[in-house]
Amino acid sequence: MLLFSVRIPDQIDKQTLEISQADEEVYSDILALAEELPDHSPRYVLLSYPLTLASGRQSVPYVLLYYLPVTCNAELRMLYAGAKELMRNTAETGRIIEMSEAEDLETIEEKLKG
Fold first, then answer.
1. Pick from 1, 80, 98, 101: most CB atoms within 10 A?
2. Smallest Cα–Cα separation from 79: which of 92, 66, 91?
3. Is the pTM of the predicted complex or chain greater than 0.90?
């Protein structure tokens, strides 16, 4: 069984413009996380996912998943796009992986290797 760590999805409060935790749950199942992502609202997700590279070397990349569904309104798109690099720098992640559908999490291992 593959163990990984997913930090709580983060959201931006439109009134205060603060990035805050959407809920108190920590996810250990990538498919459970996919089910919890909203259909019409962006989220930032911090992911630490252990994997074995083609060379046989172990790696545990720490990345920011930027979830931006195609059905989200323009105001939220601009709000989240403007704070994406701030979130990345604050969390000190190695890279950003952009996703438009929750189902993109099913192929996250390939994206992390590539």
1. 80
2. 66
3. no
Identify the sign of the CA torsion 112, 48, 27, 69.
Answer: negative
Q: CB neighbours of 53 closer than 8 A, spacing ≥ 6?
A: 59, 113
Query: Whole-angstrom Cα distance, residue 8 to residue 22?
Result: 7
| Lookup: tokens for 91 | 């969390």
Instruction: Please name which of 96, 98, 28, 89 lies closest in space to residue 67, comparing C-alpha atoms.
Output: 98
Q: What is the pLDDT of residues 20-41, one digit of tens each?
A: 777 667 777 888 888 888 899 8
CA-to-CA dists, residue 16 to 20, 69, 79, 93, angstroms: 10, 23, 12, 24
Report CA-CA distances (Å) from 99 to 1, 3, 17, 24, 104. 25, 22, 22, 22, 6
Query: d(Cα 25, Cα 54) in Å, to the nearest integer?
Result: 33
Q: Which residues are paired to 62 by β-bridges?
A: 48
